Amino acid sequence: MSTLRKFATAxxxxxxxxxxxxxxxxxxxxxxxxxxxxxITGGSRGLGLVIARQLADQGARIAITARTEExxxxxxxxxxxxxxxxxxxxxxxxxxxQVATFIDRxxxxxxxxxxxxxxxxxxxxxxxxxxxxxxxQSAMQTNxxxxxxxxxxxxxxxxxxxxxxxVNIASLGGKRAVPHMLPYAASKFALVGLSNGMxxxxxxxNIFVTTACPSLMRTGSPRNxxxxxxxxxxxxxxxxxxxxxxxxxNAEAAAEQILTACQHGRGEVFIRSPLxxxxxxxxxxxxxxxxILALAASVLPKMGGIGRTAAKGHQSQSEWSPSxxxxxxxxxxxxxxxx
Length: 339
Ligand SMILES: NC(=O)c1ccc[n+]([C@@H]2O[C@H](COP(=O)([O-])OP(=O)(O)OC[C@H]3O[C@@H](n4cnc5c(N)ncnc54)[C@H](OP(=O)(O)O)[C@@H]3O)[C@@H](O)[C@H]2O)c1
Fold this sequence. Notes:
Elements: H1 3-29, E1 37-41, H2 46-57, E2 61-66, H3 69-81, E3 86-90, H4 96-110, E4 115-118, E5 124-125, H5 133-161, E6 164-169, H6 182-202, E7 207-213, E8 217-218, E9 226-227, H7 231-243, E10 249-250, H8 251-263, E11 268-270, H9 277-284, H10 286-299, E12 311-312, H11 327-335
Helix pairs in contact: 2-3, 2-8, 4-5, 5-6, 7-11, 9-10
Bound molecules: NADP nicotinamide-adenine-dinucleotide phosphate.
NADP nicotinamide-adenine-dinucleotide phosphate binds next to helix 2, strand 2 and helix 5.
């Protein structure tokens, strides 16, 4: 056998060994959702609600939280119609005391917590010039400290039980900063670091932490996102991008992948998307990636419009959005309690 052939055979055997070992490890860690006590922040609409529906159908006991009571009540009613036991408790994850009260209620009623899914998040879109310190603080407090607050309240219960799972929904935007979303990018980068660090430390307690980095998902969220500067143009490009098949993915498929990753106790996961290739490109060609992103920034709307004032997506409509180009996003908004 030639040296090259021997090398290829050894490499193939090594790869097969890795695949088999990985499958065995994942199978050993896997659990089923029946009667699992699951906390979902941001469970009132969008991805959190899509995840909650899938868990309700698999027999989990579910506690959802968000700030808007009306949305929570609607979500809880739908989940109960699916047969789930549901706690719906309004809470702002930025406030540690409110989080403590929420988690107390859940542990009293469910007698423990098995899984925490940190889904709550906000996004503010506009040029850097339009962003205030408050935008950065609010993004950090919600997207990063919010997840930390809930994890800190839940962890003593998981440690006492000797088992637990935590999923932090970060973003591809937490691996590569996209222009016109700086507070979001900063907070999601911070969350990725926090979440990966937690995984390393908590494994010894039999608590597996998964960091999910989805790219664009059609959750219907643009209507409730915040836009600044030329807000109608910002909303137009953002919501059209959010609606394009190929660029954005179906939220139900993303939720399934996230829940499977949690069941397998995986670490950092990228939800399948063609946009994931941009991370590989960034790692290979970091400077070129920066140049391309600078080019993208140069064609996005300039400062102007409402300046540093904030407007929700549904207050930023134009002839471009809603339009035929945003049909899929509009349909997702209706499905996922965004209106
Ligand atoms: N959609 C995407 O394309 C995409 C891509 C990558 C990552 N993600 C991430 O996935 C997660 C879900 O996104 P989504 O599109 O489903 O967003 P969404 O539809 O806007 O839902 C956000 C949820 O978080 C809740 N929330 C926001 N601030 C909160 C706070 N301070 N305290 C408690 N709850 C709060 C919202 O309810 P209230 O406003 O009533 O509080 C809502 O339930 C976010 O973390 C987002 O960053 C989304």
